[in-house]
Amino acid sequence: MKKILFIYNPVSGKGAIRSKLSYIVENLSTMGVVTVMPTKAKGDATKFVVKNMDNFDTIICSGGDGTLNEVTTGYMKVEKERRKPCGYIPAGTVNDFATSLGISKNINKCVDQILDSSIFPYDIGEFGDRYFNYIAGFGAFTEVAYSTSQSVKNMLGKTAYILEGIKSLTKIKSANVKIVTENKTVEGNYIFGMICNTFSVGGLLKIDRDDVSLDDGKFEAIFVKKPKNPIELQETLNDTLSGKLNSKHFEYFRSSNFRIISEEPLNWTLDGEFGGKTDNVEIHNHERAIEFLRPNKG
C-alpha cells in the first residue's frame, strides 16, 4: 500500500484547513496510509520534505504560497531521481500557483481533484541559493505580500493585497537595472520587475495562457518602465491590470537564465515571501524539476 505524507500549515488562510482535516485525511486514505505533519515554525516544511522523501510515495502539502515554497525548496535539495510526486491543497490568500495548474481553491473539491489527477512536470526557478515556484520580483507591489501581516491577510483575504497595493502607489521608487540573458541585454529605469512562470500574479495581473508554458524551461520576464508623468502612470496601471504586455511601458521577453544587476540593492520577493536584498543575482530555470499532481478535470 502506498504511503502518503501530508504536510500542512495550520495558520494559512484564516486557519480554514483545521476544520477540513477529517475530510482531507479520510479521502487521501483511499490512496494509501496517510501520515500527517503540521508545521509549527518557518522552515519546517522544507525539513519534513528532505527528511522523509525516501519514506513516502507521494507528498501532499497544504498552505499558502509560502508553505508551497518551503516544500519546493525541500524537493530541490533532493536529487531529481529521488523526488516523489507532489500534491498541493491551497489554503492561503491568493494562491497564484494553484490558479495556473487549475487547482480548486475549495479545499474539499481540491482533495477530490487529487484523487483524479495526473503528473505534470513543472519548471522551478533558482534565485541565488534559493528557489521559487512562480515568481521572483522587485519594486512596486512586490513587498505587499510579505509586508502584510498574517492577521490582516486572514481577516481581509485578497482585499488585503489590493489595499496594501494601493498604498504602495504613493511611494513608488524606480531602479536602474541591467538584465542579461543568453540572447539579449536590456537596461532601463524600472518601477517593477519580475521573472515568472504563471498565468496570474497577485490575482490581479493576468498573462495570456497562449504566451506561457509551465514546463518548457523558460520564464516570462516583465519589467515596467518608470512613468515620466501622471498620464503615463495611469496608462501603465491600465496596461498592467488588463494584461497588455506588449505595451510601450513594458519590457516583455522570455529566457531560461538571467543575470540582474542594479545600481543599488533591491528588495526581492520569492513566491510572496521576502527573498533578500541584492544588487546582483543570477536566476536559472530548472526545467520539469518537480512532478506536481494536476487535476484531470476542473
TrEMBL record:
Cofactor(s) recorded in Swiss-Prot or TrEMBL: Mg(2+)
Gene Ontology, cellular component aspect: plasma membrane
Gene Ontology molecular function terms on file: ATP binding; ATP-dependent diacylglycerol kinase activity; metal ion binding
Keywords for the protein's UniProt record, in alphabetical order: Kinase, Lipid biosynthesis, Lipid metabolism, Magnesium, Metal-binding, Phospholipid biosynthesis, Phospholipid metabolism, Transferase
UniProt KW Membrane keyword: no
GO biological process, alphabetically ordered: phospholipid biosynthetic process
Domain annotation DAGKc: ranges: 1-131
The family this protein is said to belong to: Belongs to the diacylglycerol/lipid kinase family.
Protein name: YegS/Rv2252/BmrU family lipid kinase
